[in-house]
């Protein structure tokens, strides 16, 4: 081997070493540390979710964390679905700034959806379905402009559906069925304009006090009151008709009696 070969080999080694061992992102580390603190994992499904791994969760495209996917050394997907997780969703999740897909569905998570998720500006998929999440749907989610999927079905979310979510032009899946939401469905989501994908009643059903298109009108509270008024008016009309009929029959009968009497009288009276 010549001198130049040695130099070249050394240069290559330095170069290659620099690439995969790039320093872990401090934001990802903070995000994972806080998320791990806020979650409970009774069945120990989260393998390698330890402080040591949080400081270096990715090597290029390889992830050392169960449920995490890496892209260029950053966490870009978290899929922790169906792992019997308890606890809450940490607001520090927003420090995983390269996150594109966040799936915490089918667990037993409680507490609110942190409005801080608005800082996940690359987020395309949000699936928190089938948990016990409560509180409002944060209107700030409208700031995650790349959102394609918002799936929040089967939780205990309350309050109104924020009108601002209608601004998410890329939204192709929106499911808030089976929660405790109330108020009118914003037209910007219930009756989307132009070529925007539309969401049918299955996205909204199972919320006792939610109303408006595309939910069927009969199920709403306002209409059952109308129905009661209708029944009242209907029966009132019916009794009116009945009493009219009775009066008519009575008049007929008296008329006939009078005619008969008159007939009798005329029969008794001699003709002049
Ligand atoms: C846990 O981390 C080690 C290296 O730190 C790795 O070899 C192993 O595959 C990881 N396990 C999982 C489930 O990712
Ligand atoms: C990390 O998250 C916390 C809580 O949401 C927030 O206060 C902080 O600004 C975030 N840091 C960065 C760098 O995004
Ligand atoms: C969200 O996750 C559930 C299962 O955990 C899955 O059935 C559902 O299809 C997901 N939603 C979307 C829009 O992919
Ligand atoms: C939906 O919007 C269209 C036009 O934007 C309108 O003509 C239609 O009446 C609306 N439907 C409902 C149920 O509000
Ligand atoms: C409603 O939309 C969902 C998904 O967007 C679809 O699977 C379902 O068939 C639709 N239902 C009706 C009645 O159109």
List the helices and strands and how they pair.
Layout: H1 3-18, H2 26-38, E1 39-40, H3 51-54, E2 58-59, E3 62-63, E4 68-71, E5 74-79, E6 86-87, E7 101-103, E8 125-127, E9 134-135, E10 149-151, E11 156-159, E12 173-175, E13 180-184, H4 187-190, E14 209-211, H5 221-268
Parallel strand pairs: 5-7, 7-8, 8-10, 9-11, 10-12, 11-13, 13-14
Antiparallel strand pairs: 1-6, 2-3, 4-5
The structure holds 2-acetamido-2-deoxy-beta-D-glucopyranose (5 copies).
Keywords: Cell membrane, Glycoprotein, Leucine-rich repeat, Membrane, Repeat, Signal, Transmembrane, Transmembrane helix
Membrane topology: Single-pass type I membrane protein
Main location: membrane
